[in-house]
Design brief:
- The protein has 140 residues and is of the alpha+beta class.
- It has one domain (10-139): Thiol Ester Dehydrase, Chain A.
- 19% of the residues lie in helices and 39% in strands.
- It has helices spanning 32-50, 133-139; strands spanning 10-18, 60-71, 80-88, 94-103, 110-122, 127-128.
- The longest helix is centred in the first third of the chain and has 19 residues, at 32-50.
- It is elongated.
C-alpha cells in the first residue's frame, strides 16, 4: 500500500529525539518499530503542549485508529532524529497527522514519513464525538 504526502498540511510541532545505541537491530540500522515510537513521542508531546491529556474516568481525548510509516532510508546510530508533525484532513470527529523524520545533521532529507488518524472520543462510552472548538482552532 502506498501512502501519499498530503497536499494540505499544517506544521504544528517539531522536536529532536536522540538515536540510542539500543535502537539499532541486528542489521545495524534503526529497528522499524522505533520509527513508530518516534512518531508516538512527538504526538504525545504535542498533545500535552496543547492541553490534550488523558483524563480520569469520564474524560475525553484522542484515540489512534490507524498508523503507517514509509521507510525511505536506513537511519543509524549515532545521531538525532528531527521529527516534524503536521495536521491534515480535519473532519467532524477526527483528523489526520503526517510526520516526517529527518536526521538533525541532514535537515531537509526525509528518511521516513508516516502518520496516524486520530479520533476525538468519549472514554466512558468509547464513542467518537465532535472535535472541540478549542482543538479545531489549533489544527485547522
Amino acid at each position: 500500500m502506498r501512502f501519499h504526502v498530503p497536499e494540505k498540511k499544517k506544521l504544528v510541532f517539531e522536536m529532536t529525539i536522540p538515536i540510542r545505541w539500543g535502537d539499532m537491530d541486528a542489521m545495524g540500522h534503526i529497528n522499524n518499530t522505533l520509527y513508530f515510537r518516534y512518531m508516538e513521542t512527538a504526538r504525545i508531546d504535542w498533545c500535552q503542549s496543547i492541553g490534550i491529556v488523558p483524563e480520569a474516568e469520564g474524560g475525553q481525548g484522542i484515540v489512534i485508529v490507524n498508523a503507517y510509516c514509509t521507510f525511505r532510508q536506513q537511519m543509524r546510530y549515532p545521531g538525532e532524529v528531527l521529527v516534524k508533525m503536521y495536521t491534515t484532513e480535519v473532519g467532524r470527529s477526527s483528523f489526520g497527522t503526517y510526520v516526517t523524520m529527518e536526521r538533525a545533521d541532514e535537515p531537509g532529507a526525509i528518511w521516513a514519513d508516516g502518520g496516524a488518524k486520530m479520533v476525538w472520543t468519549d472514554y466512558t462510552t468509547e464513542k467518537s464525538m465532535p472535535l472541540p472548538d478549542w482543538l479545531l482552532q489549533k489544527i485547522a
